[in-house]
Design a protein that fits this description.
Helix content: 25-40%
Number of domains: 1
Distance between the termini: 10 Å
Shape: elongated
Number of strands: 4
CATH topology: TolA/TonB C-terminal domain
Largest sheet: 4 strands, antiparallel
Number of helices: 4
């Protein structure tokens, strides 16, 4: 296993958060709607296998500005590690705090997360 990848996996498993190299790039749509969200978590098993992809979610909010329902519209892939990425994306959206009173309304929109890993050089 290349040293950079081993260090990345160790750092991610130890910290339990994203590093600068393992990236989950969320679209800004939640922030634009006033939601406050934590950074998405890149699952350690997905890192170990090099799973990447793009998760597209359908998000429904209620009239008080809370996330009411989150479903996968397009999965990041078919492998079980990709399913972990999709579940992490759902958890990320569900952890968002309610929109401020001025932006509260019931609506449905799509949200996308791109999961990527660094290029490995020898």
């Amino acid at each position: 296993m290349p040293t950079q990848l081993a260090a990345l996996l160790l750092a991610t498993a130890t910290l339990g958060t994203l590093t600068e190299d393992a990236i989950a790039q969320p679209t800004a749509i939640l922030a634009e709607r006033g939601f406050k969200c934590q950074e998405p978590y890149y699952p350690a098993a997905a890192l170990r296998t090099g799973a990447t992809g793009r998760t597209v979610l359908r998000v429904k909010t209620n009239e008080v500005g809370q996330i009411a329902e989150v479903t996968v519209e397009q999965a990041s892939g078919r492998a079980k590690e990709n399913k972990l990425l999709d579940l992490s994306a759902i958890q990320h959206v569900k952890s968002c705090s309610a929109a401020p009173p001025t932006t509260r309304k019931a609506e449905t929109f799509t949200y996308e997360l791109v999961w990527s890993l660094p290029a490995i050089t020898k």
